[in-house]
Amino acid sequence: MVSSPLLFPDFFRWGTATSSYQVEGNLTNNDWFAAAQTGGYIYQDQAAGLACDWWNRAEEDFDRMVTLNQNAHRLSIEWSRIEPSPGVWDNDALARYREMLIGLHQRGIEPMVTLHHFTNPLWLTEQGGWDNEAIIGLFERYTQKVVSVLGDLTPIWCTINEPAVMISHAYGLGRFPPGIRDFNAWLRVAINVVRSHAASYHAIHRLLPNAQVGIAKHMVLWKPWRPFLPNDQIATHFLEYLFNHLLLTMMTRGITRVPGRRSYLLPETANTLDWIGLNYYTRYRIQFELFSSQLKPRFKPGAMKGPGEWGEIHPQGMLIMLKQLWQRYRLPIYITENGIPDHTDAHRPEFIISHLSQVWQAIEKQIPILGYYFWSLVDNFEWTEGYNPSFRFGLFGVDFETQERHLRPSGKLYGEISKQGGLTSEILAR
Ligand code: GAL
């Protein structure tokens, strides 16, 4: 058993992450609320409803962050609140976000603000959403508005959360609204997303020259199901490039080759990342059948994995991804999400320790990692899984009937780790 302390640098951010639709409550003007009405996307067609009622009681959870010795939090701004109809701004909503960010500062918690976390205002969806080039200018205008009001409250901005997940689920697999399965649409949307990010990046820097702007990039550790079979190897490489690296290549180099398609040259998107946010959760083994063109994840019996289609829990993947990002892009890294669906909390404590050990090893290898934002502080609405009881991610459990919170053992543990600034011998020995 390892028992020498794994201590992190003094500046390290110990935080958690949340997003507007998943915690705020009473959001009915976006595409995810609409998807619950249409049906077919979400577990029991659930809308987020009151969620964790952050619009009214975020500060109570900020106090809980203090009890867990947190010094950072990543939250998102809801576009459909700020701009409920095109060009109309809700100043009260902006004032509430100001109040929330000030509330974090007052508690010694540094905010990281995400501008887009999966949801689009309905009026934008009606105009074609991400599949309409107009979104680039609209996202830039929304960015300007938000940053002009909140810019003095944080230099750390995340333009778009998990763009590859959003594009792949919404335009490739048809699982997120608008439910499209078409590679041409996927590509068009990918370009619009990258250009929107770039427009937002430049807008933030115009207003805040010292801002640090990045994205939260979900990275999957892809592996061939049958490592000896070219089918599975090629499919794995394809996914690794398409899902893990294509967007980052565009955002760093402004150029990219899409396998089987053309190259894209988008100079305005080059050098539009000051840091990369890594969202790391799982490993997937991939099987590809040539004749049926079927690509599917496969799981070994007894593999440590999450519920349903959730992939394998593989802590070593954290270090692999951190090394890969650093070697390819040479940018500072925040771990903007890492967590596990575990309503029993049986596995979360070990998950936290094993993943943080990997982060520590990466820091030892001189990879500049600035912070870790655990997903999530509180149980919340989980996209296609809605309030499915198997998909609970919180350090605090939430009773959604009463809004009561209870601290899970993993929360207590993460609080101790944050207080000690790492994994002490005592924590490791336990
Ligand atoms: C990410 C997403 C979060 C959260 C998390 C857990 O993909 O950014 O909003 O839902 O997964 O599944």
Report on the structure:
- The protein is of the alpha/beta class.
- It has one domain (6-429): TIM Barrel (Alpha-Beta Barrel), CATH 3.20.20.
- 41% of the residues lie in helices and 20% in strands.
- It has helices at residues 20-23, 31-38, 54-67, 79-82, 91-106, 122-126, 134-150, 163-172, 183-207, 230-253, 316-329, 348-364, 409-420, 425-429; strands at 6-7, 13-17, 72-76, 110-116, 156-161, 212-224, 255-257, 263-265, 275-289, 294-298, 333-337, 369-374, 396-399, 404-407, 422-423.
- The chain has an 8-stranded parallel β-barrel with strand order 2-3-4-5-6-9-11-12, surrounded by 6 helices. Strands 1-15 form a two-stranded antiparallel ribbon.
- Helix 12 (348-364) links the parallel strand 11 (333-337) and strand 12.
- Helix 8 (163-172) runs antiparallel to helix 9 (183-207).
- The longest helix is centred in the middle third of the chain and has 25 residues, at 183-207.
- It is globular and about 55 Å long.
- It starts with 5 loop residues before the first strand and ends with a helix.
- 47% of the residues are buried.
- The model has no long low-confidence stretch (mean pLDDT 97).
- Bound molecules: beta-D-galactopyranose.
- Beta-D-galactopyranose is lined by residues 19, 22, 161-162, 165, 218, 279, 337, 375, 382-383, 393.
